[in-house]
Design brief:
Helix content of chain B: under 10%
Low-confidence stretches of chain B: none
Mean pLDDT of chain A: 95
Number of helices of chain A: 11
Oligomer: heterodimer
Structural class of chain B: mainly beta
Helix content of chain A: 25-40%
Radius of gyration of chain B: 31 Å
Number of helices of chain B: 3
Order of helices and strands of chain A: EHEHHEHEHHHEEEHEHEHEHEE
Largest sheet of chain B: 5 strands, antiparallel
Strand content of chain A: 15-25%
Radius of gyration of chain A: 19 Å
Strand order of the largest sheet of chain B: 7-6-5-8-9
């Protein structure tokens, strides 16, 4: 190959996925104690040892547990001696997976371990998330995460795209689907509950909980060696919108649509979509932005309404979509992750299994 | 297993933030009861104003005054106000497009109940009595059925513009150190030091964190170490820490407790600071009721041979 020739893009796949049982509180465990079983499980699925991994990337946020540099302590669970190639994003693990994917594309590594975790139980996640807002104009008002999602839900109702019974149905369907998910935190029939911030009721909001997830990525033939039916990442892209809520059309998600287009999601239909929609109204917005018809199985895991470990819930969406392909339940799946208030940042990945 | 320890933890920080020209004009304007927006290249007026067009990324500086009255574009009823929020009584969160603006501002609306609020309703600014140049100079919005607001002609030039704000933040947590560190802390309260042995490499970690950082496996086997140990390396501290009642200079050292494969750190006392040395044998000194050793002092034993601790430096 001469330097003028662009190398063919490597095929990269999710070959393993593991997650904790997501729970309201894991106070008996430190972050690394919560994370470590998941790391061991995902490695065991492939037979890899930590020393075999080419690149490690993680996602988490110190603000959740109120501990500075907590991700460096979590590295104890990886086995970082002798020295490893490692990176961290202060974001959901879905973005750590994006970084690992680019690393594998460069050819510098053939395998990557991606993990993320979040313990929301030590603090108040509604208050913690206010610290990601504009510090001049918005954060001093302390609008909590549910309040901002409620503004978005009301805008959606006013626009005629949904109503409160339809939102309740989204929550009920998610928790009903979650009964088949042994890791889910909220499952089965639950009371819809009163308003938290109107128009959002308890049933429209995600549970607060602790949890962790990990996936292993592998390139080309390595992926086929490690997994019977790899979930090939056909495309992945992430986009961001203006931070100021009053600038955006809260009833739409143009960043999701653009990320999906760049990831190739519209080239052929998908059969499954794992959407990171912590609030019921956000699923309505994402379905429209992604043009998902009723024939697409949305959030068979129960989604973020059944378990929303902050910083891991997006990576869990990619893992759940990949696991369905591994099992043969899906041929082509879309996975979505979000971050920031009212779907500010969005990542879309398209996964496919080999034809069978 | 004993109960895992818990303790309240408050993280509090006053961020001092400098303001750009547009933010400075907007927040100074609020102090003077003037609401300013900024014009984009294609003629839109953004309120609250920003320094760069969110669509084109073009730098924008053209300040214009907008009216202190406007229209609710979306809302949410907050029946349980939380700490720090604009009103202590139930209120509506609102995005308000002020007359003359093309974008909406987030704030609170004082209204008797959710039935009194709807998208499209007219509202106006209620100013805070004391204003300092902050978004909270708008106390909240209130319902308004008067004439459409007439913007003034303020250009954003002020005699005494703000250059910065202090943004305090406070988050409350319940800290829990997890299983391994709880066991360590509880042993300390009995004046014992326990580590954990890695089942794979057999090293004993002190303090234990529940995982061997080399092997990446869980540790569980408790091992009592010390109480005596060896200074592996040290430094001389010459600057007095605030709120710390220790005379300087003093010595802070890494100490390999007998039986441990990792050095922990502590202050050395009972010996002049300039006589502390690598290899010095030390033991903990506990004070009444304390949950950890106050400091370590020489045992009087001969110094340890370098070969016995060189792997622990």
């Amino acid at each position: 190959m001469t330097s003028e020739e662009a190398p063919a893009a490597r095929e990269i796949a999710v070959v393993a996925f593991a997650q904790t049982d997501h729970r309201r509180s894991t106070e008996e465990s430190s972050e690394v104690e919560m994370l470590m079983p998941v790391l061991h499980e995902v490695l065991a699925q492939t037979g890899l040892r930590a020393a075999d991994i080419g690149f490690t990337c993680s996602g988490s946020s110190d603000y959740l547990a109120g501990r500075a540099f907590s991700f460096t302590l979590a590295l104890d669970g990886v086995g970082a001696w002798p020295p490893i190639s490692e990176s961290h994003v202060e974001m959901d693990g879905a973005w750590a997976l994006y970084e690992a994917w680019t690393k594998l594309l460069t050819g510098d590594a053939d395998t990557a371990l991606v993990y993320s975790y979040g313990k929301s139980s030590p603090g108040s996640v509604r208050d913690v998330l206010t610290r990601q807002l504009d510090p001049y104009y918005v954060a001093p008002l302390w609008p909590d995460s549910i309040a901002l999602a409620a503004l978005q839900a009301q805008a959606l109702i006013d626009a005629g795209h949904t109503d409160e019974p339809a939102l309740a149905a989204v929550g009920a369907r998610s928790r009903a689907d979650a009964t088949a998910n042994p890791h889910a935190q909220l499952k089965g029939q639950l009371p819809y509950g009163g308003y938290v911030v109107r128009p959002l009721r308890t049933g429209d909001c995600p549970p607060v909980g602790d949890g962790a997830a990990a996936v292993i990525l592998a390139a080309g033939e390595r992926a086929r060696e490690l997994c019977e039916r790899p979930a090939w990442i056909r495309g992945i892209d992430h986009r961001i919108e203006a931070h100021a809520l009053g600038v955006r059309d809260l009833t739409d998600s143009p960043s999701t649509r653009l990320a999906a287009k760049k990831a190739g999601a519209f080239e052929r239909p998908v059969d499954t979509a794992e959407l990171h929609a912590p609030f019921t109204a956000q699923e309505v917005i994402l379905r429209r932005a992604l043009r998902l018809g009723d024939d697409v199985r949305v959030n068979p895991s129960g989604g973020a309404l059944a378990a929303n470990p902050v910083m891991a819930a997006g990576l869990v969406r990619i893992g759940e979509a990949a696991a369905r392909i591994h099992r043969g339940d899906s041929g082509r799946a879309l996975a979505h992750a979000t971050s920031g208030p009212c779907l500010q940042q969005n990542l879309v990945a398209v996964l496919e299994g080999d034809p069978r | 297993m004993p109960e895992v320890l818990q303790a309240p933890l408050v993280v509090e920080f006053p961020f001092t933030r400098s303001l750009g020209p547009v933010q400075s004009a907007f927040l100074t304007g609020l102090r003077e009861r003037v609401v300013l927006g900024v014009k984009t290249g294609d003629g839109r007026t953004l309120v609250p104003p920003v320094e760069y067009d969110p669509v084109t990324a073009e730098e924008i500086r053209d300040l214009v005054e907008v009216a202190p009255a406007g229209t609710v574009t979306t809302w949410a009823w907050n029946h349980e106000p939380r700490r720090g929020q604009p009103l202590g009584t139930p209120f509506a969160w609102v995005l308000v497009r002020l007359d003359g603006a093309d974008t909406a501002l987030l704030h609170a609306l004082d209204a008797p109940g959710p039935d009194a609020v709807r998208t499209g309703m007219r509202v106006r600014v209620r100013w805070a009595e004391e204003r300092t140049g902050a978004i909270t100079d708008i106390a909240c919005f209130e319902p308004y059925d008067g004439e459409p607001g007439q913007p003034g002609r303020h250009t954003g030039e002020f005699e005494d513009p703000l250059t910065g704000i202090v943004a305090p933040a406070r988050l409350d947590y319940t800290y829990s150190p997890g299983r391994a560190q709880t066991a360590y802390i509880q042993a300390l309260s009995e004046q014992r030091t326990v580590g954990e042995r890695c089942p794979s490499c057999r090293k004993v970690y002190v303090p234990p964190r529940g995982a061997c950082p080399t092997c990446g496996v869980a540790t569980a086997e408790q091992v009592e170490v010390g109480p005596r140990g060896t200074v592996t390396t040290f430094c001389i501290v010459n600057i007095k820490a605030r709120n710390l009642d220790i005379e300087v200079p003093y010595v802070y050292a890494h100490i390999a407790l007998d039986g441990a494969d990792l050095a922990l750190h502590a202050r050395i006392g009972g010996i002049p600071y300039d006589q502390v040395r690598m290899g010095l044998r030390v033991e903990p000194v506990w004070t009444e009721g304390s949950r950890y050793p106050d400091h370590y002092r020489p045992t009087g034993e001969p110094d340890a041979d370098y070969e016995t601790y060189k792997e622990l430096l």
